[in-house]
Design brief:
alpha+beta, five-stranded antiparallel beta sheet, three-stranded antiparallel beta sheet, single chain, 28% helix
């Protein structure tokens, strides 16, 4: 049947049929725009999920470290791993040991092991990755990769790398069990506060080796305040450098307490511990930095 109005008529214009399955340029641009919008919506969620996974791994690390500390203590007449610390060097709490020559396994210790280095050396927790928060992705002195470039961890530091510390090994967590005894610290970014304090390494009754290592006198597990933190994510600079981030902003840290349990510390809720002025003072170092470090460590909530 002829579909045209007059028999034998021929249309002046016949639309060219479009190839099956083909996209026009406009349709393709619309699809690309939709994909871009969906990606922009999904990427933050994926990043948040990835950080949550790392946060869980961090909790597991701290639990293993806590168990390792208890094993070490039970094997050493209740004595805790030596605490390498003095207020003028708050970063000492991350050191594991010093050694020479470099890049030789096993290490020959020139100081220590102390802090978490004692746990590793006693074989209470041997996996080197346990001592580093997975959220700290930077290849710096507080990361596993920093010490496994030229050899196996912990003796693989690249001596040619900028800002390397070739004579010592640091963990990515701070070891700082807290005493049941307190002292009033006044030179704080916050108001004066009663903060747990150990005797100084220079205490006349201290062990000679501990004095040489700049470690406080030996203390027993029973002398540790279990309501205070024992091991936490690294604190060494401004609050913006914290390992756990959310949306490009500091989110918080994990803290293991004297009884071994681990609790998340949120920047939003633990406002005293995450006071920006306190962290600025810590980053500045010196006695003031150490006192503010002690204060911050006493603020984490069990």
């Amino acid at each position: 049947m002829n579909s045209y109005p007059y028999p034998g008529s021929i249309p002046l214009f016949r639309p060219k049929p479009r190839a099956s399955g083909a996209f026009t340029l406009i349709e393709l641009l619309v699809v690309i725009a939709i994909i871009a919008i969906l990606a922009a919506m999904l990427l933050p969620a994926l990043a948040a999920a990835k950080e949550r996974s790392k946060r869980i791994s961090c909790v597991n690390n701290l639990r293993q470290i806590g168990v390792g500390i208890f094993v070490y203590s039970s094997d050493n007449a209740d004595i805790m791993p030596p605490l390498h610390w003095r207020p003028s060097n708050a970063d000492y709490t991350y050191e594991m040991f010093r050694y020479a020559p470099q890049d030789v396994t096993p290490p020959t210790f020139t100081a220590g092991p102390y802090n978490l280095g004692s746990v590793w050396n006693s074989k209470a927790a041997t996996d080197g990755r346990v001592y580093y928060c997975p959220s700290n992705s930077k290849n710096d002195g507080w990361s596993y990769n920093f010490y496994s470039v030229k050899s196996t961890w912990p003796c693989g530091v690249d001596l040619t790398a900028p800002n390397n510390n070739p004579d010592w090994v640091r963990a990515g967590y701070s070891y700082y069990p807290q005493s049941r005894n307190t002292a009033t610290l006044r030179d704080l970014a916050m108001a004066a506060a009663d903060v747990p304090q150990w005797p100084l390494y220079s205490d006349p009754g201290n062990n000679a080796t501990l004095k040489t290592w700049v470690c406080v006198p030996f203390f027993k597990q029973s002398a540790v305040d279990q309501t205070k933190s024992m091991v936490v994510d690294v604190i060494y600079s401004s609050i913006n450098s914290i390992s756990h981030q959310g949306g490009g902003k500091p989110a918080g840290l994990n803290a293991a307490f004297g009884d071994g349990h681990v609790t998340w510390q949120s920047v939003r809720t633990v406002t005293d511990g995450f006071n920006a002025n306190v962290w600025t003072a810590i980053a500045a170092g010196g006695q003031t930095g150490g006192d503010n470090y002690s204060y911050a460590m006493s603020c984490w909530r069990p």
